[in-house]
């Protein structure tokens, strides 16, 4: 059965961030992820992880000025020094939180910039980041993100992400495969799981219902089938990663809004226990 990690940026928003760890553990999650930890001292987060028996499985490197609309630095000309400082900061947090994976966002395509030049810069930055991460036993992930949710984002397709990983050739550079983004952009999700998971280039999955990005039992994707595909292929290739629950509870940030929407996970766990 897939191991599910609660995305604490989107889930349990009725609580302050540091209180979401306890809420996730109470609902049976063993792993957590989120966008950014940098507003809180790493020691404070590490204590919440330890207190509640949780594993930190993923977070993002600094993305630039998020509030101003920036969505990563890795493909942006002239931001190389800031990018490297951000990777150093992310690796410090990863060490403190014992987190094996860091998602590095590409950024929005700057107006008037040639895409091939941006690709070469992106590759150089990813190569450098992977080298730094490998020295301390961490993985760097890149994620295709759909153009509806993030217009202008540099990376949108699975095939391009895997081509970039192959071009860099670092064993610790992998793809963050978000089933939601994949369905919105290109579809054929199950076959892409079967195609890419055995390559060793998939480091992490994420899920959400399509199209509203609510619970995975709402919308057009049949997640029980997709979980069974992940299980089947993982058993064949030895993959032991996590599935991040990166969705917005349809009930919103109300007391119990996340917890009462976890019937999809309970049903899947009960089915797996009967098999």
TrEMBL record:
GO MF annotations, alphabetized:
isomerase activity
The domain of life for this entry's organism is Bacteria
Keywords from the named record: Isomerase
Q: Does Isomerase appear among the keywords?
A: yes
Pfam annotation, one family:
AP_endonuc_2
Q: What Gene3D superfamilies has UniProt attached to this entry? A: Divalent-metal-dependent TIM barrel enzymes
The residues covered by the Xylose isomerase-like TIM barrel domain are: 21-266
The protein's matches in PANTHER family, at most eight in alphabetical order, are given as:
HYDROXYPYRUVATE ISOMERASE (PTHR43489:SF13), ISOMERASE (PTHR43489)
In the record, the note on similarity to other proteins reads: Belongs to the hyi family.
**Could you tell me what this protein is called?**
Hydroxypyruvate isomerase family protein
